[in-house]
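hey can u check if this looks right to u? its 306 residues, i copy pasted from the old doc so theres a chance i mangled smth
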Amino acid sequence: MRNRCPDNELLNDLQKDFPDIINLHRFINKNNLPTTMARLDVKSVKTMDDLLKRKHVNINGIRYPVSEYFAPAKVLVCSKCFELGHFRSNCKCEKDKCRTCGLEVDDIKKHREENCDKLPHCIRCKNNHDSTDLRCPTIKTFRTELTKSLLSSSTHDNNKQQQRQQGFVRQNGIKEFPPLNVNTTQNTWGWRANDEVYNRLNQLDRDVRDISDQLKYLLDINTKQLAQQKQITELTTSHAVLIHQNSQKLMSQQVEVTFLGETIENFLMPIYQTVLQVLPKLIQQESIPTASIESLAQRFDYHINA
């Protein structure tokens, strides 16, 4: 459907002729731009069959083709080796593989907590992303091939049914032709496209993908916080070492000051006291020069004040 008018107007025009159409979803390409294709959600099998038989619908004088929609096939990824196409219970690997770094380890829990380098490395395509990332090229290729195979199988079954129908007509005539029992509206899941269970599964799949994206976002935040915490721990440790070194230097200086004080008190002070006792007599006898007396007095005052 070309983008010649808004989707809500297209839906309203379709609902005039087909009231059982409940919604219209425009497909988006990889550049997040609307495409020319849209999916119709129909609540009536009869209306769906009618649309498929018509093969076209006319809206405002424009003819739009109608074809059956097949949902993309789901890809099974093993949670042990992260290869495709089997469950963990059927996995032949003896050891678990890390979904992040891709290493094969004995204790996956211990590896994730202590030894994993947290550098994404896909086990399948060897690119820099987790092995559980559904955007992996290998998963995309596998899903595409699986979807094509299912579509081809469905087309092949329809062709065989038509061939049987044509053979019956040639043998018995058109009047005795039995009703065609081909479930053309059945998708790869085995339910009709408008089945309530199928819609719920689609919604569940979207919810799981959203939760997976949120978990990846939280894991990224947790990794960044752990890195910041590690930096803070390293800074704290380095500061503690500096404080310890400065404390030791301060203690050493205190010991030196204490030693000098004790030296002055126990050794120099008695000498100065003796000099003070002898000095007056030397002055009276004029046995010592005046300059020497002044110098000696200054030194004595310095040590006393210290």
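Residues 102 and 123 are 5 Å apart (CA to CA).
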